[in-house]
Design goal:
The chain starts with a helix and ends with a helix. The chain has helices spanning 4-14, 32-39, 54-61, 66-77, 97-109, 122-127, 147-153, 157-164, 173-186, 190-199, 206-223, 229-238, 259-270, 303-309, 313-316, 329-341, 388-396, 436-446, and strands at 22-25, 45-50, 86-91, 114-118, 138-141, 275-278, 297-300, 353-355, 362-364, 366-370, 373-379, 401-406, 411-416, 422-429. It is an alpha/beta fold and 447 residues long.
Length: 447
């Protein structure tokens, strides 16, 4: 059960003294329904409501008092209203704005019930302010599987034990790098990971990738006005080749489309959570204030979808270093994906840094907020002397810590910028990206 980390988060939710209905957010096929069905086994009884079905919507949307609606709901489900620990899962809730509003009454008048809601393209509903009762619900964001979840799914029990240790032994480095490379190839979409774990055959995954991408296209077409579809389809054809690249909206993908239409279409596609426009920081200190006047960088949901869409599997299979392929972009992308993978907060985000001057421009792949400082994170395999952008960041930063993600083993060293400022460089192998916060704590406490 590779969803166990999400299950742990759900258990924590059940124990909150002021528990509110939980709304699961996330892209299509990240496992929202599957994980709730698994979690339901921990309850005395389970009521599943799919609001795509008219008869189910009618059951909840009846113009009757809330308490009477609950009685009707339990009778219809053949469940007991009292004396049982009950989980109610309202799926596809975007189909019923009235049910969204009713969540407040589950919180105020029936708090003994455990209520979870989810649905496709909820972001579109939320951003249109047809939203959930403020202060009466809480949100959890689900993402593709992390590397840890991939190891669980593929039953790499020995590697899991090694990976969970406080210090990873040097002899395990090549084994973990090989496993991480495989994870990077296929990505973290739950259906993909489960199928790969069962068959260990990448070719068996191609039809699933195509089905996933078709599903995202269908979602967009449900909510896009007809005038936008031309631009949306163009982006879907070209975006996967632009992973981690800075975007120019004007004539994107060698088109003749104008900036305004392209930006509007990208904004629409972000609502599917298939892709995200990340605007850069231009400062090296808090607060986190992305500069919306700068070109954004494009991040996609999952590296497996990128590899499939860009037809990269042949090039990736058998490579020794992630950063040899696709102009380093796959390596950069999987690092960003891992930085987010085990963070279930809807406010979590990726950040990168840029300085654009005529004399010397610079760009650091990621910036990681840690305590009250911003840690630069560069994805590289070259020598320290080539980390020019990271050096420029450190010259301006008010601290002395930086991270390089690479294919080598973990190490910590004291180095100098080109201008002579000393700082501590923490070298982390790709498979340790999810442990970045703990590694920073350990290193800083020692130094």
């Amino acid at each position: 059960m590779f969803q166990r980390q999400i299950i742990l988060k759900l258990r924590q939710w059940t124990k909150k003294p002021d528990r509110r209905p939980l709304v699961l957010r996330g892209a299509r096929q990240v496992g929202k329904t599957t994980v709730v069905n698994l979690f339901a086994k921990e309850f005395d009884q389970y009521i599943y409501l799919n609001l795509e079905k008219p008869e189910t919507r009618a059951l909840i949307e009846n113009e009757i008092p809330f308490e009477e609606m609950l009685i009707t709901l339990f009778i219809s489900a053949k469940k007991s209203r009292t004396g049982k620990r009950t989980l109610i899962f309202i799926d596809e809730i975007q189909n019923s704005p009235k049910t969204m509003a009713l969540l407040r009454y589950f919180y105020e008048d029936a708090n003994e019930l455990y209520v979870i809601a989810a649905g496709s393209l909820l972001e579109s509903i939320i951003l249109r302010n047809i939203s959930f009762p403020v202060g009466r619900v809480e949100f959890m964001l689900l993402r593709p599987c992390s590397f840890t979840e991939y190891l669980i799914a593929t039953e790499e029990k020995q590697l899991l034990e090694i990976y969970a240790a406080e210090e990873i032994p040097a002899y395990a480095h090549n084994l973990l790098m090989q496993a991480f490379n495989n994870y990077t190839y296929i990505g973290g979409m739950p259906r993909i990971v489960a199928t790969y774990a069962k068959h260990k055959d990448i070719t068996a995954l191609f039809a699933i990738y195509a089905d996933l991408l078709e599903g995202y296209s269908e979602d967009v077409e449900k909510y896009a006005n007809p005038g936008m579809m031309e631009y949306v389809r163009h982006i879907m054809q070209h975006a996967f080749h632009e992973s981690c690249n800075r975007l120019t909206f004007e004539r994107f993908g060698q088109s003749q489309y104008r900036s305004r239409e392209m930006k509007e279409a990208f904004t629409l596609l972000q609502k599917t959570m298939l892709m995200k426009l990340v605007y850069p920081l231009t400062n090296t200190r808090l607060p986190l204030q992305p500069n919306l006047r700068k070109k954004p960088r494009l991040h996609l949901l999952d590296t497996g979808l990128i590899n499939h869409s860009a037809r990269l599997f042949v090039d990736l299979i058998g490579s020794k270093n992630l950063d040899e392929n696709f102009r380093v972009k796959i390596a950069e992308h999987i690092v960003g994906q891992e930085l987010l993978a085990e963070n279930y907060s809807v406010s979590s985000a990726l950040y990168f840094w840029t300085r654009e001057k005529s004399s010397s421009s610079a760009e650091v792949d990621y910036v990681f907020p840690f305590a009250d400082i911003l840690i630069p994170v560069e994805v590289k395999s070259g020598s320290i002397g080539k980390l020019r952008s990271l050096h420029q960041f450190m010259d301006e930063a008010g601290h002395e810590f930086a991270v390089r993600v690479w294919s080598g083993k973990k190490s910590v060293e004291r180095v100098k910028t080109i201008k002579g400022k000393s700082f501590t460089l923490i070298n982390l192998p790709f498979y340790m990206v999810s442990r970045i916060e703990q590694e920073l704590k350990n290193t800083i406490s020692i130094i």
